[in-house]
Amino acid sequence: MAQHGGPQQRIFSPLRTALHRFAFILLILSAFGLMLLGKADTVLIERIRAASADLVSPVMNIVSRPAASINEITDKIYNLANLYEENERLRRENQQLLAWQQAARNLSYENERLRDLASYTSPPALNLVTSRVIADMGGAYAHNVMISAGSRDGVSKGQAVLSDEGLVGRVAEAGYQASRVLLITDINSRVPVVIESSRDRAFLSGDNTNRPLLTFLTADASVAPGDRVLTSGDGGAFPSGIPIGIVSSVSENAVRVSPMFRRHQLEYLRVANYGLHGILSETRIRQSRPADNANSTGLSPEIPVGVGIVPVEPAGNAQ
Predict the structure, then answer these.
(1) For burial by CB atoms within 10 Å, which of 20, 43, 119, 313 has the most?
(2) pLDDT digits (tens, 9 = 90+) for 177-224
(3) To which H or E segment does residue 145 belong?
(4) Among candidate residues 110, 139, 160, the one where a domain is terminated
(5) Is the same domain home to 277 and 135?
């Protein structure tokens, strides 16, 4: 004999059937109503959203803990699996470092003995001033930047300016708080250089492009793409051995060098005082001029004697 449900089943059974039939439509209407409510009262929706997040966050925190624990255990197992291999690698590196340490000690002792025998004089201490590039003063016809360091920081005209990779240029003008740096790519820049592999000497001449030229190379110079270019130390402007760039192209008409830096990526530079007078020293310029304004040669005092000009003797003194 079939059993009929109670009064509650007779009441809720039609409601359950209606919900099953119209559930999708009810969800769409609910979403549409929430959207209208959100447009009408944004403050209320934000409060509801914040309250919902506060209610759900503890549950999410509890649910996420097992996953975080599983990830942590997995990382520990992975680290334990690689621990032996890493330990062996560190042992090999430690042995190599000990061998290099012993070789460095031997070379250091030998270097000191050779310096004593040769009466070698150590170079002056290097003073560095780190500064930030505050303006790019250049354009299509000039490559200059301004740095936030001047004479108050020990910066003077002619000092070398370096980046992390190598030589950037030299200080062209030194103010009290700021200085102007002439980049090696500027058309007014000339730097004595040497090719690292062949030891051939030349001048790095800027031409307002990103790849300056190597000029005054000898006819039998051995230069190939990929050769490193260093300062030669000639002229007393920079010490020898500062990296400048890499030879990028070699042709019959020109040899171009790619500098170690990129102009538009310069942020922090170091002004290096090597204790050299340099080609831009005011004292050196004054010493190269004649002592008297009127001299026996009859030349202008602005032109040093012996710079491609031969003094002409008066006609009365001719033998």
Answers:
(1) 313
(2) 999 999 999 999 999 999 999 999 999 999 999 999 999 998 888 999
(3) strand 144-147
(4) 110
(5) yes
79-99 pLDDT tens trace = 887 888 888 889 999 999 999
Q: If you write DSSP's letter for every residue of 219-268 in order, what string do you get?
A: TT----TT-EEEE--GGGSS-TT-EEEEEEEE-SS-EEEEESS-GGG--E
- Is residue 225 left, alpha or beta, with left meaning phi > 0 and alpha meaning psi from -120 to 50? beta
Range of the domain at 95: 28-110
251 and 159 co-located in one domain: yes
Encoded tokens for 270: 């170091």
Using CA of residue 91, residue 95, residue 98, residue 100, what is the dihedral sign?
Answer: negative
Q: Under the phi-then-psi rule, with left for phi > 0, alpha for psi from -120 to 50, and beta for the rest, what region is 306?
A: left
Query: Is a pLDDT exceeding 60 seen at residue 253?
Result: yes
Q: How many domains does the chain have?
A: 2
